Sequence to fold (837 residues):
Amino acid sequence: MDRIDIYPTHLFEGHKLRFGRPSPFGASVVPGGINFSVFSRHASYCVLVLFHKGDDAPFVEIPFRGMFEHAGTGEPVWNEFRIGNVWTMTVFDLDYEEIEYGFKIDGPGGRVARGMPGVHRFDPSIVLLDPYAKAIGGRDVWGATPDWDKPYPHRARIIYDDFDWESSAPPEIPMEDLVIYEMHVRGFTRHPSSGAKYPGTFAAIREKIPYLKSLGINCIELMPIYEFDEFENSRTHPDTGELLLNYWGYSTMGFFAPKAGFAATGKSGDGTMVADELKSLIKELHENGIEVILDVVFNHTAEGNEHGPTISYRGIDNATYYMLTPDGYYYNFSGTGNTLNCNNPIVRSMVLDALRYWASEFHIDGFRFDLAAILGRDPWGAPMANPPLLEALAYDPILGKCKLIAEAWDAGGLYQVGSFPAYGRWAEWNGKYRDGLRRFLKGEPGTVGDIAQRIQGSPDLYSTRGTSASINFITCHDGFTLADLFMFDGKHNDANGENNNDGANDNNSWNCGWEGPSDDPGITRLRLRQMKNAAAIMMVSQGVPMILMGDEAARSQGGNNNAYCHDTPLSWFDWNEAGENAELTRFFSRCIAFRHAHQALRRKDHLQNRDVVGSGYADITWHGTKAWNADWSAFSRTIAFMLCGKHAVRAGHADDYIYVAMNMHWEGHSFELPGLPDGRSWHVFANTGAGSGADAFEPGSEPRLDDQSSILVGDRSVVVLVGR
Amino acid sequence: MAFDASLEMTANGIAKITLTGELDASVATTFRDKVEEAHTHGAKRVALMLSGLDYIASAGIRVLVFARQKMGSDVEIFAVAPTPQVNETIEMTGLHYSLRVLPSYDASVIETV
Fold:
């Protein structure tokens, strides 16, 4: 017997309908049809608009309230498909692979002209994108010039959720064991040198999995992959005529849809295959022991301020989705025009629904929240002591194993590094690690005490949260690359067309004596050494290291520290550089391997600076050029520490002893070595002052040190020893 | 070009499903029925004869995924002589990891069970 709940009850212009199901929101495939559901607290009228894919004009507009025909008798019958504040109806017999949909919504307040303030911004002449759209058309092929006259430029599509994950499951790697690689999906393989079959796409990353594994990466963090518009605010460079795009993509169109332009299958104009391509990538990464973290942008949307376009949220329910001043202007804590009203219960649910969707449907392992401090503000912008969204995310059952990482500041001046509401779950991009390490690497005075904290996982910031609350990084997409950090004193952002006024000024960078590229062998050697110093220190620090794409191959952006608008070789990873700088890449991979080999470097709990296991050594001890005598003075540029492996026991096995000497002075110094127990001896794992080949060894095959009492650490160099 | 799907079971239990034309949502169930039928006949291998298939939409990809699940992991599925466009779609969506793509019908590979 057929199910009667899938029988149409109404007809509208020949289309079969019945009252829909209010949840889930969005469009879902139900037996025989598609269920549509959209929330609007303030709407007075709503229309479902259905298009054949790509058509400018809809083939039908079905009101959620109006005069229909009774499906049985054909008699006119008035009805309203609405429950509470949710408009919902099921439409039968749709070829859902072939349609696009949207809504027209009206409500109080009258038309508000662009540029004018308004609490409500209803305009029933505009077709609105479903906030829950699982696929969005309109920007299917990256960089393909859009037709600006299209009445409905960004179009909701319907997808299937039947990808076969087989036995693949998220690896659930402990946080403290991660080595994160921050990458741009397109930039990673777009350069012709990548040799990828489908450059710049999800599919191309699959081809590079062997490279990631050889480097030792076990987690990639993808810069925004939610559908965005690379043509948003696109402009032409005043001098070169070059088209500048929104390359980074920190401006979300829809929180549920992967960016079609990042998919090789995007050109098919079919959102389902885009999802398949991404899932296929994630599946293969997982099978290779690599997790996937998404950089998610919930602080604002692509609709901008009152001058921006009406695409979705503001036309559906402006007062719900955005933080507004009493007279209808947009609060701007994001620095980009509007601020999503994340602690409104409706918006909070949407954020949760989105993340649950990504975790369950795409097997995403974690999320990094852009400008996350905003997520802790109340609807009027004030920081909350117990922000319900952050709490809900921390305790959510579906996100129970997902990593949650906050960029713990916002553009409104809220800086919460060390104080972000964590609920035992949240980690943070540790901006103080970045700044402290950069100053120390420069050789600034007064930095030794600070970096001692950073190397220990910043117990001064995260005393109750463990080491893995600290995401340690020296560079990220925003700012100088590692190569540029030691090539430029100042930013060189002229190519952005903003008179070099954009981008950060406090870079703590040092050009090593010459601004820009240099042929001077002394300078190039020093720069290479500084990059190795950075890599070595980051990989022996407690906490979770994060590497910026290409830093392992000395990728330069020519001093541009804000390359958000460049879809050019300026931002792409040049795989030739990986060959030319093989010495640095090898050094990175060996330091990562060393980290993976030593649990003493990946503690979950903070070091206690005392001996709690009776080994005769504290878990960490501090040294200087004299063993056991660290120089903490303001002018000290040398510091060394030793980790006692007996404090780092996993699966019944204690680790080796590890000694790290850092000399950021411009002169070499001899470091007296602390003695080892039990007939152990010191072996050299890394010495950034040594030449290629002797700068780092395969873990386990480190040569024994001839002189066990002291070691010369060259100027601006780092030495890492292992005692076994 | 109109879509067509036909099934031929060989004596040694190979299901040869020949697809021609354009495979989209409107005809995907025809293909799906053939997969069901092959399963009913206890196919030991499935050879999808694709040289006459001009286009595959996501609904067709769905049936390939379905075929993989329906047949079970011990029944190998071959995509035989796909056109460049169809092959590209299979590659981009990662299906070439769960199907085996062959440039032509190779009895020594397909029929060696």
In short: Residues 294 and 679 of chain A are 47 Å apart (CA to CA). The mean pLDDT of chain A is 95. The longest strand of chain A covers residues 45-52. Chain A is about 20% helix and 20% strand.
